[in-house]
């Protein structure tokens, strides 16, 4: 049975991914600060220690779960949101949090992929459409997501360290905090799209960012140039 990782599998989108892929017959490993009892296995992350120490502990746990097996996919949906410009009271604190939640988790996911993803496997990260432009009212969030976008391009390039034939992308939802619900992209739609990329039923060019925009309850996924 194929195994995959959902990094952030105890969050809102992550829980939907865990349930979706389990319903399709995959064995799902959740990586998060807390357990998701719907997952087949849980690897608990920690906010203490350096990035290197956190990554080492997670990789050790994954290794013990897999043995000689490899992962078919890694879906990193860990992250969060915080606003603020450079003069905001908590600017540095919130920026550090954004980097930890989005950049560090993506770097660890990439490291897991280099060690445990099968040939031709899939790694997906989570970006943001807003981070393709200036984000003066949420600088920490913007720079964190922009770094994730850059990481996708790095990992898709030759000699990135990923196994041969692997594909990497990031899904970029449109950030609309005040929008009607019919303009929010549902987690279920994202799960179905990611499954299509995993199975090859939907075309995906490695290194491309994928926008997810919903209008009037209709969602369109588009690979960006």
From TrEMBL:
| One of the record's GO cellular component terms | cytoplasm
**Class of the enzyme per the UniProt entry, highest EC level:** oxidoreductase
Check the record and name the InterPro entries matching this protein.
NAD(P)-bd_dom_sf, Sc_DH/Rdtase_CS, SDR_fam
**Cross-referenced SUPFAM superfamilies, in alphabetical order?**
NAD(P)-binding Rossmann-fold domains
- Asked whether the keyword NADP is assigned, the reply is yes
Q: What is its EC number?
A: 1.5.1.34
| The protein's name | Dihydropteridine reductase
Alphabetic keyword roster: NADP, Oxidoreductase, Tetrahydrobiopterin biosynthesis
Query: What biological process terms from GO does the record include?
Result: L-phenylalanine catabolic process; tetrahydrobiopterin biosynthetic process
Q: Provide the assembly information.
A: Homodimer.
GO molecular function annotation:
6,7-dihydropteridine reductase activity; NADH binding; NADPH binding
Against PROSITE patterns, the record matches this protein to: ADH_SHORT
The family classification in the record reads:
Belongs to the short-chain dehydrogenases/reductases (SDR) family.
């Amino acid at each position: 049975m194929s195994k995959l990782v959902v990094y952030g599998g105890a969050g809102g989108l992550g829980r939907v991914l865990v349930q979706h892929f389990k319903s399709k017959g995959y064995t799902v490993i959740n990586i998060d600060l807390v357990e998701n009892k719907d997952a087949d296995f849980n690897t608990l992350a920690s906010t203490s220690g350096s990035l290197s120490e956190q990554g080492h502990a997670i990789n050790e746990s994954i290794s013990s779960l897999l043995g000689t097996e490899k992962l078919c996919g890694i879906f990193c949906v860990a992250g969060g949101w915080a606003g603020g410009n450079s003069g905001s009271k908590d600017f540095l604190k919130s920026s550090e949090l954004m980097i930890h939640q989005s950049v560090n988790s993506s770097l660890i996911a990439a490291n897991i992929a280099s060690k445990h993803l099968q040939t031709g496997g899939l790694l997906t990260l989570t970006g943001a459409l807003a981070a393709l432009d200036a984000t003066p009212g949420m600088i920490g969030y913007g720079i964190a997501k922009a770094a994730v976008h850059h990481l996708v391009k790095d990992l898709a390039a030759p000699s990135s360290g990923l196994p041969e034939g692997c594909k990497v992308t990031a899904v970029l939802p449109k950030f609309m905090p005040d929008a009607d619900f019919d303009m929010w992209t549902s987690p279920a739609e994202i799960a179905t799209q990611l499954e299509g990329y995993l199975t090859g039923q939907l075309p995906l060019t490695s290194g491309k960012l994928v926008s997810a925009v919903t209008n009037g309850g209709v969602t369109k996924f588009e690979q960006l140039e």
